[in-house]
Structures are given as structure tokens and as C-alpha cells.
Amino acid sequence: MNNLKVFVRGMSQMKKWEPLKQVGVVGVPFEKGQKKYGVSIAPAAMRSAGLIEQLKEIDGLNVKDYGDIEIPACHENANVDNMAYLSLVSACNKSLSSKVTQVLKDGRLAVTIGGDHSIGVGTVDGHFNVNEDMILIWVDAHADINTNKTSESGSVHGMPVALLVKELSDYWPYLPTMDWQVPKFSIKNLGYIGLRSVDHYERLAIEKYHVPTFAMEDIEDHGITKSINHILHLLDPEKKKPIHVSFDIDSLDALEAPSTGTSVRGGLTLREAIKLMEIIHSTGRLRALDLVEINPAIGNDSDRKRTIEAGLCILKAALGFSRRGTTPRGVTDLPVQTHHN
């Protein structure tokens, strides 16, 4: 009987998770983590397409637009082999980390619109400052876990995971300007969805640390629902940890989102991505969400429109938009049909 009382008391003390109805949107007009022009204008393009207005239409959602972060001019030169624009990347992410921390401390779910995926360093660091038990779902065609020694391009947008996880900190040289960011996040709290372009070293790292990974062939075999549920169960079997989703638009198939810098065919359908985000929303534990690598300068008007619309659909699904529609106010039952002979 005493054991039963302890169990009941423990259950009553468990944190009850509910989807946050307060959202803070942060824009990051930054593109120096890669080499193509255009990804920096994505926050403006998303707002112009009705981002804030569409989020506010979701039932019960309170949305605050924090605007774009100020990206400080960095006068300190960071000379590190094979890391382009490191000082600028560092300055941007330091500012972003502080902003994400502020949004979370304001009691809001942090929605960050990039920019390239190097900004994941700032968003995850800022989230970790508030929730050290967070788990990270990296939705991407690429693993982004290269170091400067293994990267073929030298672009930092392929390195954010390696910069964040403490298990790989010994693989880095000293990084000037990056003293503000100490790798504290554990790779044991990381899961991948949508991979299909993984470098040799990245594959070794994923296998060495047993990172839960559902690449596209796995999703093809098991479906998106079983794939994400399995990752969530492995990372958080007790269902008590805050979730951070870092969503690269190139996780979608190039037909769904053509306006992105490193598209790879054979990716997620938009329906799969929406389902993925609906499942994560339903946990009630989503606390931070990044949407990155939309590049309105790539492709024609139709490509841009399709890519931005896909991004809006993903954000809305993560924040509680229902494809079923909403019940009309004051109506709980369908009208009774009367049959006349």
C-alpha cells in the first residue's frame, strides 16, 4: 500500500506538458555560413508571405514578433583553416543565443527563421541555457556534423552539430571569437530525420555514438510516424524532456522546396513533414523550432512561392494548426438528419 502511495504521489508531481500557446518569432538574416547569396532575405520573405498573420490565426496562439536579431560587425579576425567567415558566424550566433534565451525566459516557444543552418549553434546554445535536459531533433538532408578538418567546403553550415556536442570538442582546434560558446550538449540527446547525403566522417561519428537516425530509406521502410516516435522514445522514454527541432528546408524533396542552396532529390514529402511536426506538437514538449536554408534568390517565382509555402505549412503544423479544421464556435454536434419517406 505504501508503494502505491509513493507511486501516486510521484505521478502527481510529474510535470504535465501542454503545447505552449505563447510563441516568440526571431528572424536571423544571416548567410555567411555558406557561399550562396539569398538565404539572408528569408525572414523578410516569410513575413511578407504572411508568417505572423497566419500563425495568429491558429486557435488560441499568442504570437510576438521579436524582429530580426542585430548581427554585430565583427572586427576580430578569426584565422582558422577551412572555416569561412568564422568571426561573423560567431558574432551572429552569440547574439542569437541571447535572444533565444530571452524568448524562452519570457515563457514563449522560440521560433527562429534563418538564415543558413550555422545559426543552429546559437539557437541550441540559447535553448540549453534554459533547459539543460533538452533533446534535439535535426531534420535535414545532411548531418551537419563535420569539423573543419573533415569538411570539403569549409562552410560552417555543415558544422553546427559538431560545434555543439561536447563529445567532439577535442576534435576542434582553438577557435578564436568562439570563447562564448562552450560545447555542453550531449550527442546522446540528438536524433536525425531525413538524412540522405552524409559524408564519410559524419557516418563514422553517427555510428560511433549510436545516434538515433532515420534516413530516407528508413522512413521509406517504416513511415514517418513510426520513425519519429521511435527516435522520441529512444531519446526520452519517460516523455519529460523539452524538445528542440532544427528543420532544414532541404530535408524536403527538391520538388517540394526548390529554393534552397543544397537541395537533394529523394527527400521528405510535404505531407510527411507536416505529419512529423504534428506528432512533435502533440507531445506538448516542443520549446524551440528553427526553420533554415530557404533561399528566395534561387529559382523562379513559382519555386520561391512553393518553398515559402512549404515552410509556412511546417511552422503551422508544429504550432497546432489542424488539417481537420476547427469546430464552429457553439456547435458540438452535427445536425441531426431527418429522413422523410
From TrEMBL:
Record-listed Mn(2+) binding positions: 117, 140, 142, 144, 248, 250
Catalytic activity: L-arginine + H2O = urea + L-ornithine
Cofactor(s) it depends on: Mn(2+)
Xref: InterPro entries: Arginase (IPR014033), Ureohydrolase (IPR006035), Ureohydrolase_dom_sf (IPR023696), Ureohydrolase_Mn_BS (IPR020855)
Pathway where it operates: Nitrogen metabolism; urea cycle; L-ornithine and urea from L-arginine: step 1/1
Record's cofactor remark: Binds 2 manganese ions per subunit.
GO molecular function terms attached to this record: arginase activity; manganese ion binding
Pfam families per the UniProt record, alphabetical: Arginase
Similarity-based family: Belongs to the arginase family.
Protein name listed in UniProt: Arginase
Native source species: Pieris macdunnoughi
